[in-house]
Amino acid sequence: MRGTVTRRRVIFRSGAASLAALIALGVGGCSEDATADPTQGSRWPAAAAGGACQLLDYETVAEQTGTRFDTAGAATKDETFTCALTQAGRDYPDLTLAVTATIADQVIFTATVTPSGATAVKGLGTIAYRVGIAASTKTPVKSGPGVEIGWLSANGRLMIMRYTSATGTTAGQIDDLTPKLVALADLIDRAGPSPASI
Predict the structure, then answer these.
(1) Predicted pLDDT at 44
(2) 8 with 131: CB under 8 angstroms?
(3) Angle made by CA atoms 147, 142, 113, in degrees to the nearest 5
(4) Rg over CA atoms, the chain
(5) 182 DSSP assignment
(6) What are phi and psi of 23, to 5 degrees?
(7) For residue 130, how many C-alpha atoms fall within 13 Å in the half-sphere facing its CB?
């Protein structure tokens, strides 16, 4: 895969300097769905967690990617909404989504959002990229490789979706999964509400 990113990023809008700040995506602090046994996953749909989870559905994600998640957590900071889908009792794989309202155009997106080494993705939003995520060997939680897909929607939203695999996953498996994740991103982009309604 061309290019890798090793830090999670969320883009925030700050007045005229929209998308200028990149900060870490703190999905670990999301409020998860209510469930009596944390090893069994939630009986509630992902959307019940609120935030950007309103744009995700367990069944749709499973149909598109072949990965079934059962736990969702959401968080909101300023105008950015995030969601993390996980499997109960496991750190990885996970699927995260960050959505923020923006006034950025394609020029700003290319100059300030698109990571170095990213590959353009055609047909997703008004402009989009994909970039590989390096596997993490840090303890106590290790992960396999992954991919990040970022795009600018036609209705003024900056969206970043990231899939991180479990250990033992190969780069080739992520390459095979990437087109499916792009298709999922397109479904999210087409079905999603306006920023104000999230």
Answers:
(1) 86
(2) no
(3) 30
(4) 16
(5) H
(6) -130, 165
(7) 21
Q: Which helix (H) or strand (E) holds 85?
A: strand 80-86
**Which CATH entry fits the domain spanning 4-13+47-197: 2.40.50, 3.30.420, 1.10.10, 3.40.1000?**
3.40.1000
Per-domain boundaries in the chain = 4-13+47-197
pLDDT at 52: 94
Residue for token pair 């997106």: 109
Mean pLDDT of the chain: 81
pTM: 0.80
Is residue 4's pLDDT more than 80? Answer: no
C-alpha to C-alpha distance for 119 and 130, rounded to whole angstroms: 5
Q: Which residue has the higher pLDDT, 93 or 198?
A: 93
In this prediction, residues 63-74 reach a mean pLDDT of: 95
104 close to 113: Cβ distance less than 8 angstroms: yes
The torsion region of residue 91 among left (phi > 0), alpha (psi -120 to 50) and beta comes to alpha
What angle, rounded to 10 degrees, do the helices at 58-65 and 171-191 form?
A: 140
